[in-house]
Amino acid sequence: MLKRLLISRIRIDRRSIQNFDWLIFAVVVLITVLGIMTIFSATRPVLEKGQPSFYLRQTVWLVLSIAALFVSVSFDYRRLEGIAYHIFGAGLILLLVTVLLGHTGMGAQRWLRLGPVSFQPSEFFKVGLIVVAARYLSTRPSPLTASSLLTPVCLFGVVPFLLLYRQPDLGTAVVLTGILIVMLLAKGVQRRVLLIGGLIVVLSLPFAGSVVWEGLKEYQRNRLVAFIDPKVDPKGIGYQIEQSKITIGSGKVLGKGYLKGTQGPFRFLPERHTDFIFSVYSEEWGFIGSLFLIALYALLIMRGFETAYNAKDEFGTLLSIGICVMFLLYTTINIGMTMGLMPVVGIPLPFFSYGGTALLTNFVCVGLLINVRMRRFALFY
Amino acid sequence: MMEKKRPITLLVYLSISIFVIFLLRLWQLQVLKGSHYREQSERNRVRVFKIPAPRGIIYDRNGTALVKNAPYYIASLITDLPGWEINLTELSRLLQIPVERLSERILSHDGRTLEPIRLKEGLSFEEVARIEARRSDFPGLTIETEITREYPYGSTGAHLIGYLSLPTEAQLRKGMFSDLPEGTFVGQWGVEALYDGMLRGVPGRRYIEVDALGRQLRTLNVVAPQRGEDLWLNVDLKTQMAAEEAFRGRAGALMALDPRNGDLLALVSLPSFDPNLFVKGITPEEWERLQRHPGHPFLNRVFQSQYPPGSIFKIVTAIAALEEGVINQNFTVDCTGEIQVGIWKFRGWKEQGHGRVNLRKALVESCDIYFYEVGRLLGIDRIAKYAGALGLGVPPGVRLSTEKGGLIPSTSWKMKKKGRPWYLGETFNAAIGQGYVSVTPAQAALMISAIANGGEVYRPVLVKDQPEREPMAKLSLRPETIRQIREALVGVVEDPKGTGLAARSGLVRIAGKTGTAQVVKTDSGKDRTRKGRRYRDHAWFVAYAPAEDPRIAVAVFVEHGGHGGETAAPIARAVIEEYLGGDRAEKASD
User: Fold this and answer.
1) Distance, in angstroms, between A318 CA and closest chain B CA?
2) What is B71-147's CATH number, 3.30.1390, 3.30.70, 3.40.1000, 3.40.1350?
3) Which member of B12, B14, B30 has the closest CB to residue A253?
4) Strands (E), B459-560
5) pLDDT digits (tens, 9 = 90+) for B187-233
């Protein structure tokens, strides 16, 4: 029994080696390594002795994440279909526990502490949401009718949104809503339903807007105001946007050189190794370096869409689309924010920002992409 | 089965558009505006600190420093730091300023300028130490340093040296000193103000790399401050001190010059003030007190007060008469104590009269009747001509303060000003330095200095080794005139009957002339002794020494000093003895 299992594993692995997407693997590892280098630079001390251990911890997380990636490649992704609702249920419970018990960081309850490790359940929850949405939508006829929309909108959309909004983790809530909407649209929605739905959204926008506004914390409102008019609060959030633009712009074409940036280590830039890490990288590597990094993200996302297109079943397609849209939204919002094109929403740059839970989740997602791609011809075996 | 080609194609196009927008934005930030942002990031991390320039020292003619430079500490707050916030209650306790005043100062600051907000100025050493110890608790709190003055001799020579202070609000409103960095001390008075540009120097700059918390990481560059130039004055501190001492608390003025070149040796205006009061910011109460002081300490009496010269003007009348040939050595007048013109009687100060009076006796005993007669012979316009040639009637132009010009009347002046012809009685008054005639103590000094050097009027020279030594006026006098006047002036001090006997010195032969300026006009010379102090006449004494080879000329004016011979003459003697005899006395004691 055990022997047969081992043999079958080895056989799978041998086939996998041929079809394993080494390119996408190399891209994300390269982005992560660049990220670790930038974390090192951004947190390097100027007066104190000793380099903070952020870069080391992120390296450890990278090793763990690579392992997790191979685990998520090792089984046939279709086996997720069966346990999709369990995963989602577990994710919801974790979110709920976080809201009730989680400890506060940066004015928001996002963290759950397990022994020495604290992690953000909302990161794990993302995967659960994508899997369950793909599972649900792949079993429904296309285009979606009003009745078949009710479950995903309420269960996968409204409930998690409220939980995340309560934390509050507005960034993740917005990204997850975005992922869900794109997946629904990709699946196809009846034109009549789409029109009515759109109308409802447009009409309820002012009302929902004021409710959301009322519910926002002070710092979140400041961010929105500052995005519209940075001069309102030059020392606060407007200052962050301005400093981020200074940081990026001062890199000029060729950059100041690795470990030569000043804006991050001298703390003119807030969140220098997390949300604003792209600015630090841009300052040191300039226009050329930024171009390279953006190209890597473009490659990752395009490759993901190609995987979605070539997937052998609808579950694989929707799963890949969900993951790619997640990467796209995160990248767009984060980089857009550092360039002053988007309001400051506290979300990290995938693979690049410091943060173990996010890195692990992202690698798992890439693993799933590779998994889908690897098994696109599986019908022939 | 879903239709997947269309949505995925749309998503690909969407992604491509997003990445293209990113590229365009990067191009804009890093390529088009890169230099601008590079500059901004430099400005972020490099903070420029001012290094105050030491001000030039002011020395007296013997190299004694009249001023000292002293550090001036200011507790300031830099607020352009990210996430800057400060505990006002704690800060108020540290600086010992009420919270309300503190927050008012911080809030009223124009947030756009990067200049630190000055919270408390003129800190003591203890305060500086206390603040330094707790700097890390208050990000943005710094100690700025300026250089200010200490005046070790206090009020001595205050009207000459002046003082330093921060520009006043009125000056700033007028746009003065707008080219100087905020908080630079400027000379406000006297030599400190007159030579401010030279003494001030150029502040240096220290470029320091700082982080966002305002912590100083390292010094990038230092531009050393340029020290202001030192200034050597002609004033002689010891003489100056002796002069002020000699006034014994009375109000008055004194100017001492070197008659050979116009070097200003001493300049006294009393009552004076302590310039140190202004340096650390004078309190409104103190300012009020000084402004209301009945003695007007801010008045520079040497240049700004004009009084009738009294009998010291007889020198001018005598010179005019001799030069014009109206009188000679043998000319005499019978003095009966009064002179009758038409129905008016003009009295001399001595009721019983001086008897037969020649020029020498008229000057030595200060006979008014003699000069009435001489005045009648000369006429006012000829007197005015010689007075003008001796520097009277126009401001000397030393620029140490505003200056009054005094008044030398003439027939045309009276016609223009009063619309009436000149009367003979007015000539009588003018001939003895009363009536319309008025001079400042500075002008009196210039006049006696010209007598001492034979007719050259030098503008008083404040600064040592100043090349510009052209006399501002020159009166060509016949040697015989000079000889007679000088002999008479020696007689004033040396002759037993001389009015200036109190100036007689055992050290040196002094020549001089007393004068008395009437405060209240009386028609008789009686009752003067009974007047209250406020109504007592002002006392004048002009002198030079040594009589045979003058090296110092001095004019003394004592407010309400009574007769010139009593109060003013001893002051002149003290000044002359200190200046000429200081060395000798020291040698004698060796």
Assistant:
1) 9
2) 3.30.1390
3) B30
4) 473-474, 511-517, 538-545, 552-558
5) 988 999 999 989 998 888 888 887 776 677 788 889 999 999 999 99
Q: In the numeric block, which tokens belong to residue B95?
A: 């600086």
Closest CA to B448 of B436, B466, B432, B460: B460
Q: For residue A15, what are the contacts with CB-CB under 8 A and spacing of at least 6? A: A381
Q: How far apart (Å, rounded) are the C-alpha atoms in residues A370 and A76?
A: 11
Domain B45-67+151-233 in this protein, CATH class: alpha beta
Query: Which B residues 28-57 touch A at CB under 8 Å?
Result: 29-31, 33-38, 40-42, 44-45
Which helix H or strand E contains B209, and what residues bound it? Answer: strand B204-210
| B45–A47 CB contact, under 8 Å | no
Q: Which residue among A185, A253, A263 sits closest to B41, beta carbon to beta carbon?
A: A263
Indicate the domain borders of chain B: 45-67+151-233, 71-147, 237-585
Q: Which chain A residues are Cβ-neighbours of B8 within 8 angstroms?
A: 186, 305, 308-309, 321
Distance from CA of B1 to the nearest CA of A (A): 7
Helices (H), B182-339: 190-194, 196-200, 237-246, 276-279, 284-292, 301-304, 314-323
Out of 3.40.50.150, 3.40.710.10, 3.40.50.300, 3.30.930.10, the CATH code matching B237-585 is 3.40.710.10
Is beta strand B344-347 parallel, antiparallel or unpaired with respect to B338-341? antiparallel
The first and second tokens of residue B523, run together, are 């028609």
Residue A95 to chain B, least CA–CA distance (Å): 30
Question: Which candidate, B155, B405, B392, places its Cα nearest to that of B268?
Answer: B155
Q: Report ipTM for this prediction.
A: 0.89
Band (A111; pLDDT cuts 50, 70, 90): low
Closest CA to A274 of A39, A25, A22, A2: A39
- Rounded-to-integer distance, Cα B427 and Cα B317, Å: 11
Nearest CA in chain B to A294: B19
